[in-house]
Amino acid sequence: MKLILAIIKPFKLDEVREALTGLGIAGMTVTEVKGFGRQKGQTEIYRGAEYATNMVPKVKIELVCDDALAPRVVETLQQSAGTGSIGDGKIFVLDVGQAVRIRTGETGEAAL
Amino acid sequence: MKLILAIIKPFKLDEVREALTGLGIAGMTVTEVKGFGRQKGQTEIYRGAEYATNMVPKVKIELVCDDALAPRVVETLQQSAGTGSIGDGKIFVLDVGQAVRIRTGETGEAAL
Amino acid sequence: MKLILAIIKPFKLDEVREALTGLGIAGMTVTEVKGFGRQKGQTEIYRGAEYATNMVPKVKIELVCDDALAPRVVETLQQSAGTGSIGDGKIFVLDVGQAVRIRTGETGEAAL
Amino acid sequence: MTKGENMTFAKKIAASAGAAGLALFAALPAWAQEAAAPAAEAAAPVANPGNNAWMMTSSLLVLLMILPGLALFYGGLTRTKNMLSTMTQVGAAACLAMLIWVMYGYGLAFGPEGNAFISWGKFFLAGVTQDSTAATFTDEVISEYVFICFQMTFAAITLALVLGSVVERMKFSAVMIFGIVWLTIVYFPIAHMVWAGGGFLFEGGMFGTSLPAALDFAGGTVVHINAGVSALVAALILGKRMGYQKEIMAPHSLTLTMVGTGMLWVGWFGFNAGSALEANGSAGLAMINTFVATASAGLFWMLAERLNGHKGSALGFCSGIIAGLVAVTPAAGNSGPFGAIVLGAVASVICFYAVTVLKTRLGYDDALDAFGIHGIGGMVGAIGTGIVYAPGLGGPGDGSVGIGAQVATQIVAVLVAIVWAAVGTMIATYIAKAVTGLRVSEEVEREGLDLGEHGERAYNY
Amino acid sequence: MTKGENMTFAKKIAASAGAAGLALFAALPAWAQEAAAPAAEAAAPVANPGNNAWMMTSSLLVLLMILPGLALFYGGLTRTKNMLSTMTQVGAAACLAMLIWVMYGYGLAFGPEGNAFISWGKFFLAGVTQDSTAATFTDEVISEYVFICFQMTFAAITLALVLGSVVERMKFSAVMIFGIVWLTIVYFPIAHMVWAGGGFLFEGGMFGTSLPAALDFAGGTVVHINAGVSALVAALILGKRMGYQKEIMAPHSLTLTMVGTGMLWVGWFGFNAGSALEANGSAGLAMINTFVATASAGLFWMLAERLNGHKGSALGFCSGIIAGLVAVTPAAGNSGPFGAIVLGAVASVICFYAVTVLKTRLGYDDALDAFGIHGIGGMVGAIGTGIVYAPGLGGPGDGSVGIGAQVATQIVAVLVAIVWAAVGTMIATYIAKAVTGLRVSEEVEREGLDLGEHGERAYNY
Amino acid sequence: MTKGENMTFAKKIAASAGAAGLALFAALPAWAQEAAAPAAEAAAPVANPGNNAWMMTSSLLVLLMILPGLALFYGGLTRTKNMLSTMTQVGAAACLAMLIWVMYGYGLAFGPEGNAFISWGKFFLAGVTQDSTAATFTDEVISEYVFICFQMTFAAITLALVLGSVVERMKFSAVMIFGIVWLTIVYFPIAHMVWAGGGFLFEGGMFGTSLPAALDFAGGTVVHINAGVSALVAALILGKRMGYQKEIMAPHSLTLTMVGTGMLWVGWFGFNAGSALEANGSAGLAMINTFVATASAGLFWMLAERLNGHKGSALGFCSGIIAGLVAVTPAAGNSGPFGAIVLGAVASVICFYAVTVLKTRLGYDDALDAFGIHGIGGMVGAIGTGIVYAPGLGGPGDGSVGIGAQVATQIVAVLVAIVWAAVGTMIATYIAKAVTGLRVSEEVEREGLDLGEHGERAYNY
Ligand SMILES: Nc1ncnc2c1ncn2[C@@H]1O[C@H](COP(=O)(O)OP(=O)(O)O)[C@@H](O)[C@H]1O
Ligand SMILES: Nc1ncnc2c1ncn2[C@@H]1O[C@H](COP(=O)(O)OP(=O)(O)O)[C@@H](O)[C@H]1O
Ligand SMILES: Nc1ncnc2c1ncn2[C@@H]1O[C@H](COP(=O)(O)OP(=O)(O)O)[C@@H](O)[C@H]1O
Q1: pLDDT above 90 (res E41)
Q2: Domain boundaries, chain A
Q3: Best residue in F356, F359, F361, F369 to probe A by mutation, most A CBs within 10 Å?
Q4: Could you tell me the fold of the domain covering A1-109?
């Protein structure tokens, strides 16, 4: 199984989730994060104190799927999350050794 | 070493933490996340606009332990986090190559 | 490629980011988390009800880099995040199978 | 107010009355905030400190409605990224209205000379001193500066109310331009028509009919119908928010909306009981009506939700409170407490349907329901006032005008306000569009107006 | 208030006095809000606008206490998931009380006919017009509608205060049923007994003793002891919150609690200085006492924390402020400023122990300490008023009643209120339980009442 | 106030006048809050309820400025971890000031005996009863307790304002010690010098010159310059916050800052219009000026931002509002509305530069810009009042004093206040340092004063 870890623009989340659901993905976990990268944040000024935030709000998706599905998930993610402009984000793929569904105790791909 | 990544119901956190402490686990890291899965969220209505949230608040636990302990951690997690109802969450296990304790520079299992 | 996962004290974030930028790291992702470990939290009291929080606010950095750079990243992290006092945090290193830049579709190290 | 006077006659006189004729005003049960200015030139009467104190307090209550009140009520309903933009637009629009008011607004609405649609004179408050006074509805007076302040806050909040439909996408600069034009061609004329001696609706007999003068104690027409209709027109021209009815646009802090609701309720007594212009029994009647109509409306909205298969909601409670306040505004001193309770309940249920069913069907994006609550609630209140005024229904009317005739008058007044507001808003909005472009860029709209227009975030936890 | 009159005698007369006897009221130093209604039928005196203005302002101040004030104070102390529920319960209970008040509450408490425990008449405000007046304690009058509004806000806030002990688990529907019954069998009778001419505690000589009339300037007994005891009884019947004393139940926003505290303080002057029923020197005395007793109590709570080995806390400061306000309520016009400072300090320290030590020992779950602060603080204030009233201690008393006798009377009044409130609340709570089930399901309690009962979230950042 | 009296003469008389000479006060256009106390001993006049009502309302408005108002304005600007600390310091300092005021502050500032710099007598309010009255500027009186309350709130807010520069690092205990000393050696003497009959600045002719008495309607000198300068000095002694100009110190909730701004605006009318001591035309003038100067200043700050290449910001709007309020304080009853508009605009732009450019250059850490806005804005207002007072510029002056002489007087008053405040603050701060250490430990500063000093978190979402 693979853990697919994608960092995307927050307003793309709904679109991405729908695209993944289309692939048959039944679950994922989403976290609000701050991204540091090429994309620069807005400059904020408070009474003359300028803060050039280099942290941009992003959304992180964590999603475990079986090995076979992984390439299509990555592809779908890349297409649905892309806007073509800087800061669209990254997708990373890691190996998962084991998965368990807490409710039933099922393991492996049955747990997803 | 293994990274154990568990997504559980927020109100179970205290119980889980106590159970893991019982196993001798001395540390873990907790994040508030939103889960998308079989469990459906509450429907909210604001002046007629209905939002059927399919994102449910969850808590993610990240915990690194040595390989020997991992199965018991998974088992303890599954037992203490379970309620038997849908949405109890998942446990994923990944391999960790290296661990460092920042304060001392200790590495490997000594860092945990 | 490696995923470097570091849990540090929040007020150290700026220093760490600057140190990593010095190494040529162009991106990372930051999450606010709560840490459970040896360091104890402050005790809060509200009208006589005492809460000894054992959850301490921490910041988690996730950073993917090529294998060659990884040791120096870990070292730099350890130095810049350390204060020498308890609760400085941990660094974990995991293997990453694949990386994709969403904007361009570049993969592997070119995606970082 | 004593009973048994011929209202229409009393009004005709009142329109040209100087201080000498003021005793007659005692009989005037309607259009509470009228024609006070003309009398100010007469020999120096002195304001009773009690009335002056109450009218100063009332002015502050209306300010409380605007800056923490409405800003919070509206702001809580927007998304986090537009919080500061919403609050700043409300605040800055109010400031703008205040400055314009003392420059020429007071002159256009309550100036010493004029016709049925507009007045002039006293520009830049020429001739007003701390000894000037303005007449009330009895033979009392209040300080003219206090009267000017009180009326100033009405102009300020009405402009701010309009913005409820256009937040989260209208440029700040567009709000400013729109505000200047809208106040000038919509607000001041309507305020004059309704509240000033000689005003078109103030006089009765509109369009050559023999209709009585309309009833509007504290501004149901001038403030709420006006603001609601203008809000709808502006929203239609501006277009929907990106993602409307697709994305989740849940209120970012109903807590703050509830705080704003509470402040609006407290402040509204300045509006309603203040419109008696004295701390007398008429103010007391307006006060009790404003309490109970609102209480009734708050609970009835929740009831309507339950009857429609939903949970009674906090936002429903708040919406009901506002709907009740809007509906009781024209009726405040023109109803008995139980007429007010019924009026509040009816307005609340009708607004509930307007906001949850009608808006969804018609598909316009009145972001914070300025039309659905102020417009619709204002109409229900204005027309309902014609009914609850009747003595047979517990109202303070003297029965000399039949319910039918009074309701007909109220409907005419509503229609005049609708047409004037709609046309004027169209002009004001297109001028703002020509000057500023009206709407923020897509990118700013997506990222939020707080960062895009003001360079700040509302929260940095 | 002049000195040297026989208080008990004055009161006996006052109970049956019409407007003719009103001059006697000038001598009445106690039970500030009494028997104003009976005089309203006499020939038409006119309210001084200054007094009317002050009483309208005071009524609004009490409203400010309820909707943004108490809702924020209580809401900030609950957990995020129950914020809207808490605020909506406070707001809706207040609305309910207002409607019931004008229907039959005013009649049951201040009706023209009655006995020592209840009155009747004036139901649905029959016969009240904008010209009706209510007597004050001098030969002045205020508009009866204003008096009704002022008293209405007292009923509303008292019911809302009770809810502090039962939030986070009591059903909204149960709150409504409870409210109707509780007002009817607890609040109106106690208000009548304490404040109306002929009332059991208003008259002195209770239970055949020769005790003087009790002192209660602004409602220590009717509002605070009553609410506090009722809160305790309701909480005991309802049971503890799930996870009580196991899970962390830290206040979700002490910021909002502090905002609420500030608003309660500001609004409380309507309560206390308003209870003089005029803008006179007695109101001024009540005002300064309400300032300094509160300031003292706020600082003394923090001091008590320090002396007990803790840090002085923000919530401690807020709790002290409220405890001081509660304690000074009966004493507002019945104490000198330095008596008030001492009273505030003592009440603050006693409430500190009640809330931090006593509650923990006894183990009941009075979620927001309505009993610990309003109940205990109210008792300290009521009994303390019997002491600080003495002229030798700087109080405004005339010394005709000894401290011992006065304290004895105060204790009797406290006991009567405790017993009546406890029994009545038991009945009201069990009726609510029979009709609605009283308590939300475990699942709703866990997920929060905001989602479970109202279908909303307080925050969507 | 009528025109044509010889101001300087009137003042000389007034300083020693008992109630018999009070009619003369009618002509006094300056130093509005003066010498009311000395007259209180005369035969018993009775307060007009309207004036009493207004002054009670005004006192509450100033309280509203402090506890929810200033606490929110300041608190919103701090970082999350110091929110409760900021609010608690503001609240507790106000409480402390209230207690000290009734113990000896009133005596030191307005006592029956004294010299040019301090007075004495009436300690512990000896001799004051609910029948005592204080003179106003006409032959009216208000209840002395009310006058004491009103002045008490001024002392309380001034101390709280000073804290704006030292939050996020000063110990709570140090704030308390500082407060006691500072009130005693800085506030009471300056209040006496400026407002009490016989006071150094109240009398004119300072330092043997023939300068007229200074103009300060509602406390530009006593409150704002005083607080601003003291804040600067205290901040310099205390040192910068850790990480100042390195770390991000963005306001944690501009939403709350805007709420605070609105409350400050509403409350400020108690300050400004209340300083007329009556609900008369002078209060009306002060009211309209406080509306329009503020509106103008709010918009002009945003304009200044635009002209400097930035976005108009929400915090800029709020800062402008406060700057305008500060500047109009001395001018409130001493200017025409258009003088006030110009004054607001000028003060706003100057404060903008002080806060954004000057502060950064000089590098001191006035955390919340108490000096930049209250200090600088106060000076602009004080000096500008000397200009806008002139009848030729629409002011209410009688023209008997030339603009030049008046401005010279204003400058002298400003300088005296600056020097006195600076020296006194130095002493008070070093005493606080000796007793408490002044500043929290590095660890507490890093973790936040909420946890470190109070053991709580502001938010537990
Ligand atoms: N090496 C990295 N490791 C982890 N996260 C990264 C890394 N580089 C970028 N990111 C994340 O991806 C986001 C987008 O990256 P950025 O460089 O701004 O644009 P792009 O993806 O278009 O090249 C960043 O905000 C950050 O959250
Ligand atoms: N494939 C997945 N990858 C990552 N997280 C998942 C995945 N499936 C489910 N989750 C997480 O687990 C939570 C529970 O899953 P759900 O399907 O609702 O119930 P259950 O675990 O009982 O089958 C989800 O809310 C989500 O956070
Ligand atoms: N086994 C672990 N797995 C995951 N995170 C851990 C683990 N142990 C500690 N942590 C994280 O590291 C932080 C610091 O650990 P702690 O034991 O307090 O101090 P130190 O790192 O100095 O030994 C914790 O707050 C927690 O977030």
Answers
A1: no
A2: 1-109
A3: F356
A4: Alpha-Beta Plaits (3.30.70)
